Amino acid sequence: MKKILLCMGVWLGVVSACKNPIDGLEIRFKKPYPVALDVQYYTAAGDSVPTSTQVILTGPDADRLITTVNTKKIKVSSDGALYLSIDSLGPRPSPEKPLRYTVVVKSPGFVDAILPVEMKRDVQRSAVMIMQRVGAQSPVSIAQTNADGQGALNREWSFETSTPILSGQSPAQALLPKGTQLKDVQGAVVSGTLTARFQSVDITKPLTTFLNNPITNQTIVKPLLPGGAAAGANQQLTQVAGAFLLQLHNDQYQLVKTLSQPMQVRFSVSPQLYHPMERRAVQAGDAIPLYSYDAATEQWQTETPGKLQKSANDGLEYVAELSHLSLWVAGFTKQKCDTGPSFKIKSSLPATNLQYRAEVINDATGARLQVFNTTVNNGEVIKISGLESDQFVRLRLNDVLGTAVVNSALVNGCSGEVQEVDVSSFKKQIQKCPNGPGFKIRSVLPNSDYRYSFTVVNAETNAQLQSFQTTANNNEIIRLSGLDSDQKVRLRIADIVSSAVAVSEPVDACAGNTEQVIDITSFKIPPQRCAASPVFRISSTLPNSDRRYSFEVIDAETKGRIQFFQTTANNGELVRLGGFFDNTGKIQLRIYDIVSAAQVLSGVVESCSNVTLTLVLENFKTPPPKCTVPLGFRVKSILPSSSAAYQVQVINAANGGVMQSFSSTINNGQVININGLYSEETVRLRIMDNLSGAVALSAAVGGCNTTLQEIDVSSFKKPILKCPSPLTFSVRSSLPVSGRIYNGEVIRVSDNTVLQTFTTSLNNGNVIRINGLDAEQNVRLRIYDSQSTAIANSASVDACDAGTQIIDVTSFRVPPDIKPGQVLITLQFPCNELDKTKLPTLVLYGRFRETGTLQWKSLPNLAYAEGKSSFSILTDLLEVGKTYDFQAGPAPGYYSFSENAYKLEKADWIIRIKTDEYCK
Q: Which of 10, 385, 830, 845 makes a 20 to 30 Å CA pair with 807?
């Protein structure tokens, strides 16, 4: 914010000195009249207007105009501002009895700035006028003629703009027929010497016209529909054919509004102009929309379109007939569509929730305007919104299962019609069957636990879909699952004994209620499980141990592995085999020494034999015993004791392999015990630092060493410990209950660092919980009042304190109630209370504009409230998220506060004033 200048006193509209020179003198002021009209004047170069200006007020209600301090000394201020009020001697403006007047500002070397005003509401109007220089280089063409006492032209009157409408085009030519009667807005004739001011308008350059250009961002705001019955939608100009401004007045500045005969206007048009509705270049006979703007009422009107015709030089020219005078714009526009097109799906696909990619394609450019996902079930309607009137689009649907693409017919963006889109060419979705078919086994074979090989195949392609093994006893049901839909399948069973194969009939993969019989009566009796199995008795001279050895059952002929398992192998232990069938044949048992490379292989034995064989562990070495006590490591640490867990690993010292992994605290003096080691193992203990990546590694030590080892973690970083529970504050408040949000901070006491920022409501008894604080520090809570300079600070407290602290905000001021859509503007002084006797005014006038625009808009008055330290106002004129310039001062035209390019990010706009001159 710029440095605030607080010279705010007003004496008859003149700013007083910053400090009253007479001690003890209290100056009181008459309440100013509300502003009815404020006009900001600029030159075409964007500068303030010259000081030598004259203000003339004309029109039927001109005598009602006064200054804001009830004088007739009306003038333009040094910064180009003019403020007018309406006296209290007559009725206030209304639609039934509007006030009409004309404001003329004359200055040597400039075209007279003439602004007609028609006020239908008692609401302040704001306008911008551009002072244009006269002379050969002026963009304004000036012509004169006479009208008789009945306002009729005594001759045909033609004139043209001084510059072309658009680059490469001709100037606009206007023709008023002889005898045309001219009348003002009330129907009174306009006679005498007439002055015409005719100018082409560049709608992108608002400083080049003698009236404020009302077009912002190429938008014509809610023009009245033909006939003026109601306001239509905003029209966005896409191509301008031409724009021009014509003003006619007599010597008394009585402005012509209506014409008894239409005035013809023509100008050349580029043949490259594109017709968006016909989707081609324009040609003779085409109509181009036409809009007019009435500066007096600030209202756009949709007019009868002009048409294109062949010009004398075989080009194209735009011709329009105008029945009144205004600012005119001819061009193609677009608007947001209230109703967009709909597309009804035609499909032979089964209903599904599968999502397909849909694209709305601009037919002219091929650009994708919208992309979304949708289902495409038969009869479904896809509605498109958010399109614009100049857009012709197609709906494109892409097959998610294949490469097919379907495009709709071409349709206008504002069309409410329903187009049909046929997606029958899309691939049928392959879904997983929730339930598959069942197959009932028909068999004459005795029941067996023998498992047959089953194969599920596609009935058409014979492709294998699934394979599994299970029993196949009579009346058993084999139920399939997990199959893709949209196919028929067969179940195939192969006989394990013979070459017979049983195949089912084709059945739908999703036929969950189907139970088809599959006949395997031709199968041979399957192998039967052995009633007995061989037993091997271990013969060993080794001491008993819990060490587990690897055993392998192999086929005696092929040496292929049949079974593999691990178990102990102490002297006299029995190893009983099982799970063999009568076709398993001859087997052998092999056992491996875990210390040496020795192995023992039994003799050959029938898999179903009920024999006990001795297996002698020859040449086996005695395995090292398991350690009887754990291996211990004492932690050496300079870190504070904590519950922080670190990753710990037991490492094989010979090959670096990880033998064990677990988590543990590492407080100084703590012993970490390692169990389950064997005497032949040499290990290291490794601990990883969570914060720095440092690694602590012990010396290599035997697994059964009984001496307590040391592992040094002194290089580890001190862990950042978080408080186990939130720090809690209870609010002590006298504020009314509300959802209003206040800004708060958590401050570290030692260095005033802000640790956290937050927002909170401040209802009495509310609990504020602060999570995630680091331990071993003292903090305090700080909350800022949004209505004053008050700050609430809690007492200093340990960040991990488990109690409930108090934050007292009873010094905070009661805020006004901000409703949705409102903004509270507060000028906040750096004190608890202002000294009313020092204040030169108790009411401030404010105005604002969106940053980057010219036109200022007035705000309601900012009022001082007794006992406060601020001026404030609630308004619905501002919008959160936009960027504004703001000014305030003791009277209209006298602004001593300024705030530039401020982005309004919340409904509280607090402008902090840096001077304490007016504080108690």
A: 830
Asked if residues 410 and 336 have their Cβ atoms less than 8 Å apart, the reply is no
The dihedral sign for the CA sequence 754, 760, 762, 768:
negative
End-to-end CA separation in angstroms for the chain: 24
Alpha carbon distances (Å) from 826 to 480, 548, 876: 75, 83, 14
Mean pLDDT for the chain overall: 87
Q: Which residue has the higher pLDDT, 184 or 868?
A: 184
- Note the pLDDT tens digit of each residue in 636-645: 999 888 888 8
Query: Quick one: what percent of the chain has pLDDT higher than 70?
Result: 96
Residue 613, φ and ψ in degrees, nearest 5: -115, 150
Residues 6+ apart with CB under 8 A from 187: 258
CATH topology agreement for domains 34-131 and 535-616: yes
Q: What is the DSSP letter of 423?
A: -
| Whether 102 contacts 59, CB under 8 Å | yes
Q: Is the pTM above the cut of 0.85?
A: no
- Collapsing DSSP to helix, strand or coil, 805 comes out as strand
Q: Are strands 411-412 and 392-398 parallel, antiparallel or unpaired?
A: antiparallel
- Could you tell me which CATH number the domain at 147-334 has? 2.60.220
3-state secondary structure of 681: coil
**Cβ 295 vs Cβ 115: under 8 Å:** yes
Task: Give the pLDDT of residue 22.
Answer: 33
Task: Report the candidate in 392, 179, 369 with the shortest Cα–Cα distance to residue 276.
Answer: 392
Say which range, 224-228, 417-421, 638-642, 864-868, has the weakest mean pLDDT.
864-868
Q: CA 236 to CA 240: how far, in whole Å?
A: 11
> Could you identify the residue written with the tokens 């209802």?
763
**Region 862-874 average pLDDT:** 81
Please provide the CATH number assigned to the domain covering 535-616: 2.60.40
Q: Which two tokens stand for residue 556?
A: 């005696």
pLDDT above 60 (res 40): yes
Which residue ranges make up each domain of the chain?
Answer: 1-30+817-920, 34-131, 147-334, 342-422, 438-519, 535-616, 631-711, 727-808
Separation of alpha carbons 98 and 120, rounded Å = 5
Three-class secondary structure assignment of 378-416:
CCCEEECCCCECCCEEEEEEECCCCCCEEECCCEECCCC
Q: Per residue in 294-330, pLDDT tens?
A: 999 989 999 999 999 998 888 899 999 999 999 999 9
> How many angstroms separate the CA atoms of 150 and 146, rounded?
11
**CATH class as words, domain 34-131:** mainly beta
Per-residue burial over 263-279, b = 16 or more CB atoms within 10 Å of its CB, e = otherwise: bbbbbbbbeebebbeee
Strand order in the sheet with 535-539: 574-576, 535-539, 612-616
CA distance 578 to 725: 59
Nearest to 815 by CA among 737, 750, 760, 883: 737
